[in-house]
Amino acid sequence: MNREENTGFLKFIMYELKPKGKLLTPFNIISMITILAAVVILVIRFTSGLGSVGHASQERPWGLWINFNVITGVAFAGGAFVVTFMVYILGLEKYRPIVRATVLYALLAYIFYAGALLLDLGRPWKVINPIIGNSFGISSVLFLVAWHFLLYMGSLFIEFFPTVTEWISLKPQRRFFASLTLGVVIFGIALSTLHQSGLGALFLMAKPKIHPLWYSEFIPILFFLSSIFAGLSLVIVLETIGQRVFGKNMSFLNKSSHRDIMLSLSRICTISMFVYFFMTVLVFLHGKNFQYLNTLWGSWYLVEVLGFVLFPCILFLFGYRRLNIKLVRIGAVLTIIGIILNRLNISTIAYHWYDSALHFPTWMEIVVSFAVIFLQILVFRAIVRRMPVYTESPSWVVEEKQIRSITVKDKLFKLNTRREKWKVSAE
Amino acid sequence: MSVDRRNFLKALGIAGSTLAMGKSFGSPPVSKSDTEFFGILYDSTLCVGCQACETACAEKYGFPLPETVPAAGELRETNEARRVVINCYNTSKGEMYMRRACNHCNNPACASACLTKAMLKTDGGPVIWREEKCMGCRSCMISCPFDIPKFEYNSPNPKINKCRMCYELLLEGEKPVCVENCPAEALLFGKRRDLIEIARTRIYSEPDKYYHEIYGENEVGGTGVLYISSVPFKELGLRTDLGNKSYPEYNKTFLYSVPLVLILWPAFLLGLHSAFVQGKNKKQKEEES
Ligand code: SF4
Ligand code: SF4
Predict the structure, then answer these.
(1) How far lies A326's CA from each of A83, A94, A240, in Å?
(2) What's the whole-number mean pLDDT along residues A35-62?
(3) Cβ contact (<8 Å) for B136 and A198?
(4) How far A260 CA sits from the closest chain B CA (Å)?
(5) Residue A185 pLDDT > 90, yes or no?
(6) How far is B145 from B157, CA to CA, in rounded Å?
(7) What is the mean pLDDT of chain A?
(8) Cβ of A122 and B151 within 8 Å?
(9) What spacing in Å lies between the alpha carbon of B138 and ligand 2's midpoint?
């Protein structure tokens, strides 16, 4: 790079660093206040211990940050592996317009929610122990989950990186990273399968402490299945908001395909939710859990399973049958609530259910939890406003793709002719 | 815990979705109780509730001395500054005492949950916690069926607190301080196998006095600390619903399927990819040409 280019690049970065959009919107103000408050709370937390800000106790060692941000939040990042599966593995080009936003959302979710895990660790400075290998607890589920988080973050980063290169015009790098996509997508799907179910497996040994309606040896499978529609429901909500907020600058393709994609996603949600519901019923029968049904816990269980799984599943069904996008959106929101309920039930509400007192987080825990989410949203917005996530890729990308497809065609043509020659000679 | 071949094959069978095959591959699980672990036998009928063990433990490890005494109907818990407690219960045979501390499971859930191996089952039997490894994730607390590990919530440099059977003393050939200081000889230290013999002998020689079971012989796959008493253990606040399976077993199927998923899943996905995407591309090309 010569000097001129250098200063050009600097100018570009300086320009891009400036906030885009209005600064003093209600959302910005609320989120900034929350984040500032969270910083103060975290200072207290790191100087006088977890107990000074949170309600986690000897009986319920994990508080809101793990149970909500990590265990619940990661389920919602499941959209990335489903959507990349459909686009890159099954070649369903229809979903291409939502790939970037979904992957970006997931990448940020992992960064911030794994970050939340650090906040909750009692001795975070030891976090490298299971990574640099002086003490591998390979029989530990958490060990596995932690490693998969790390590796998956890497995969998502590589999946997203072409978008970054388009932003700062790194042509050769783009080509290189784009060529890695298929590999990391496959790797990422395998990792997701394992850590989504792994989050459930964290509770396998807590058998005597979780209410039998929620505990079963199939928790890992249920967690994996539910991460599919949890992720997709989040994509539906995210895209809906995205259309409202970034609609003006969206590429034509992104805008025009929105409705169609939402309806198709709701179809996948219906199917996966139905499978999940069916599994839940099987698990229920398998556990011979009838005796609990007419207790208070039983009603709460029914609220979760009927009200927030079966009901939204039906909404999705009607949504795509009647082409009613409103139903789809309501279904998505209900599903999201249902997933939050499910994860919190297992990890908090029905955990140590025999204790007399109900467990509530402190306001400080809640503030930090929200601050993490706000931070994620702010970064998401900042990136979307700068990089071609919803907007069209710069023209050089399109040109390059065309050139590539021509060369590929060329090669294929050569290959075919060679093959024909070979055939001829073989005869 | 090493991943032995038999279990691995068993998992293979299960992951291959043919449960029957898995059964034929695997043989009954090896009982860990043949290993020579050391343990402690607590005889509730001898305990007088004097708290000498509590005091000795607190003195030895620099914790505050006990301020409350065991009283029926009041549950005292171990916590970040108390590794062993004696509780009093109103039972069908009057007031009885029960000890509560780490049971040093033969196959401990806490150690298998720990991702840094800070919790460790030593060869001799004690389950110890190592400060230099622990990152404070508290999954040991989630996993321990007895809710034993306790965490210092009010410290910026928190530690996990739990009984470690005075591991250092054992290395020097001594006994744990609680056993050493029990004036009523309600606590015995020794090889787990011998302790079971002793417990059985006591039960058989005074069949009317004892409840005919040893708590910890089979619970959660066997524990290093064993209990006998004159009343059913439930009356003494022990959980009798934990089952005899060792807790790490609950994770096995999941953990063994991990390498399989990592190998088979990508292969399957690649297959799908070539069927759907490359196949489609080829068709297009053929149509174009
Ligand atoms: S009782 Fe709990 S802390 Fe003690 S060894 Fe067993 S699982 Fe670990
Ligand atoms: S808190 Fe420490 S000892 Fe317990 S599982 Fe986590 S790293 Fe291991």
Answers:
(1) 22, 21, 10
(2) 87
(3) no
(4) 21
(5) yes
(6) 26
(7) 86
(8) yes
(9) 5
Compute the Cα dihedral for A405, A406, A410, A416 and give only its sign.
positive
Highest-scoring range by mean pLDDT, A41-45, A125-129, B194-198: B194-198
Residue B200 has a pLDDT of: 94
For position A23, what pLDDT does the model report?
76
pLDDT digits (tens, 9 = 90+) for A1-43: 455 566 777 777 777 777 777 777 888 899 999 999 999 999 8
Per the structure, the count of domains in chain A is 1
pLDDT band at A406 (very low <50, low <70, confident <90, very high): low
Whether A339 has a pLDDT exceeding 90, the answer reads yes
Task: Tell me if A189 and B79 make a contact (CB, 8 A cut-off).
Answer: no
**Which ranges constitute the DSSP H helices of A121-211?**
129-132, 141-167, 171-201
The domains of chain B are located at 5-28+255-288, 38-245
Q: Hey, of A45, A53, A123, which one would you mutate to test binding to chain B, going by the most B CBs within 10 A of its CB?
A: A123
CA neighbor of B192 nearest in space, from B161, B210, B214 = B214
Ligand 1 atom nearest to CA at B127: 5
What atom of ligand 2 comes closest to residue B149's alpha carbon? 4
Scored b (16 or more CB within 10 A) or e, B1-39 reads beeeeebbbbbbbbbeeeeeebeebbeeeeeebeeebbb
Who among A142, A194, A412 is closest to B139 (CB)?
Answer: A142
- Give the up-direction half-sphere exposure of residue B275: CA atoms within 13 A in the CB hemisphere: 7
Question: CA of B274 to nearest chain A CA: how many angstroms apart?
Answer: 8
Question: Which CATH topology does B38-245 take?
Answer: Alpha-Beta Plaits (3.30.70)
b/e code A48-76 from CB counts within 10 Å (16+ = b)? ebbbbbbbbbbebbbbbbbbbbbbbbbbb
In the predicted structure, residue A422 carries a pLDDT above the cut 50: no
Q: What is the mean pLDDT of residues B131-138?
A: 90
C-alpha span between A284 and A289 (Å, rounded): 6
- Please give the pLDDT value at position B280: 72
Task: Note the pLDDT tens digit of each residue in A202-233.
Answer: 999 999 999 999 999 999 999 999 999 999 99
Q: In this structure, is residue A404 part of a structural domain?
A: no
Q: Which residues of A touch B285 (CB under 8 A)?
A: 409, 412
- All residues of chain A having their beta carbon less than 8 Å from the beta carbon of residue B80 are 58
Q: How confident is the model at residue A251 (pLDDT cuts 50, 70, 90)?
A: confident
Choose the closest CB to B156 out of A47, A127, A135.
A47
Question: For residue A172, what are its two tokens?
Answer: 């050769």
Q: How confident is the model at residue A127 (pLDDT cuts 50, 70, 90)?
A: confident
Structural domain boundaries, residue A339: 23-387
CA distances from B221 to A111, A222, A262, B50, B107 (A): 39, 27, 51, 31, 7
Residue B33, pLDDT above cutoff 70: no
Chain B positions in Cβ-Cβ contact with residue A129 (cut-off 8 Å): 116, 133, 135
The verdict on residue A420 lying in a domain is no
Q: Which ligand is nearest to the CA of B164?
A: 1
- Among B32, B80, B102, say which to mutate for ligand 1: greatest number of ligand atoms within 8 Å of CB: B102
Which numbered ligand comes closest to the C-alpha of B118? 2
From chain A residues 49-68, the ones with a CB under 8 A of any chain B CB are 49-52, 54, 56-59, 61-62
Count of C-beta atoms within a 10 Å radius of residue A346: 24
Domain assignment of residue A16, yes or no? no
Contact A77, A110 (CB under 8 A): yes
How many A from CA of B139 to the centre of ligand 2?
6
Q: What is the mean pLDDT of the segment spanning B129-153?
A: 92
